[in-house]
Amino acid sequence: MSTTKHQQLALQSDDGHLHLPRRQKVWRGAAHAALIVALVLGLGAARVLVQRAASKAELEAQTLEGQRIFVTTVTPAPSKSGGVLTLPATLRGDNETAIYARVNGYVRKFNVEIGDRVTNGEVLAELDTPELDEQVRQAAAQVEQARANVVLGKVALDRWNKLFSQDSVAKQDLDTKQNAYDTAVAALAAAEANLKQLQATTAFKNVLAPFDGVITARNVDIGNLVNSGSSGVSLFSMAVTDPLRVFADVPQAYVKSIHVGSEVPVTQAELPRQVFKAVVTYVAGAIDIATRSLRIELMLRNPDGRLKPGTYVQIALPLAPAGAVAIPANTLLFRAEGPNVAVVDKEGNIRLQPIQIARDLGASLEVAQGLSSSDQIVLNPPDSIANGDRVTVVSAAKAAAGK
């Protein structure tokens, strides 16, 4: 090291001599420096340890918070009503019939069209019946012939009675004339009966309405040949539109809810926000084997004719409660032993309670056994929930706010 450098470090004085610091002073300074470094390092280590402890505590708190199960509960409600069962149904007229011809002939005239309202006895159509008319004339001629035979037989019988009284003829001959007269009388009676029958049949040349109603079909035109009987095509169809009959098939499971006299709402999709009232009038006495359902009939007033026979409608059948309490369907848990619900006890512990479902109403369930109205049931329970789990109950409002 040069003299200049010594002077810069204050190791050399002006007189040219080198003055080194004392060893004790140097060690004291080094000790002070080491102490300061140790303090700085200790403070840094302490800060790291404190931060690690705080982080660990926070992590443990977060872990515990994450392990907590927050649930919303509901209490079973008393089953005030079993709800309604919506079923398809069909409207029919109170009386419906197809009208056929009673005689053979041709359509000469028809007086009504579909949609016309007719009264009992009104003429719907008129028929020409040439064959029947000829039969009537022939029957009338047969009556006259039989009547002439009776007159002739009477004259002959009187003559033979007179001869027999004079012992001029045998008794057997008189009996023969008596038999001939009796046969002629019987033939006259038969001819007259046949004439009356044919004359009565001519009344069917006019096709009459059997009751008050509406014409729902006309299947004939002028000149059509029609045959008597119901084997062919009907001339007309008609129905009574007030009242209407409603037919529905009720599944076997709901048969006990059907009672004659019950009032049932009826709706039609094409008539929104309109509800019609029908009354159960008849209930079939047996279950249909093919469908396992029970046919019921309801009566529906239709004074303004808004509803038409043959329409597809729906009925809302009121159901009697099948269970003591009702719970939401989203409380149900399925386990190997059957349906369960998660009940929260007073200590906040979970108890899986088996239940017996009396009726599934879709959004709710009617429960016959297993629950009371004071039980706290978990809504939307997780599948992993088990007996003994501790849970924290929160209100529905807080749960909704958290979402």
Distance between the termini: 79 Å
Structural class: alpha+beta
Provide the CATH topology of the largest domain.
Answer: Helix Hairpins
Given the structure, what is the number of helices? Answer: 5
Number of strands: 25
Reported for the largest beta sheet, the result is: 6 strands, antiparallel, barrel
CATH class term of the largest domain: Mainly Alpha
Helix content: 25-40%
Task: Give the mean pLDDT.
Answer: 82
How many discrete domains? 4
Short account of what is shown:
This protein has 403 residues and is an alpha+beta fold. 31% of the residues lie in helices and 30% in strands.
Itemize the secondary structure elements and their pairings.
Layout: H1 3-8, H2 23-67, E1 69-71, E2 73-74, E3 77-78, E4 84-93, E5 96-99, E6 105-110, E7 117-118, E8 123-128, H3 130-165, H4 171-201, E9 206-208, E10 213-218, E11 225-226, E12 236-239, E13 244-251, E14 263-267, E15 276-283, E16 293-300, E17 312-318, E18 325-328, E19 333-335, E20 338-344, E21 350-354, E22 356-360, E23 364-369, E24 377-378, E25 391-393, H5 396-402
Parallel strand pairs: 1-25
Antiparallel strand pairs: 2-24, 3-18, 4-13, 4-17, 5-12, 6-8, 6-11, 7-10, 8-9, 10-12, 13-16, 14-15, 14-17, 15-16, 18-23, 19-20, 20-21, 22-23
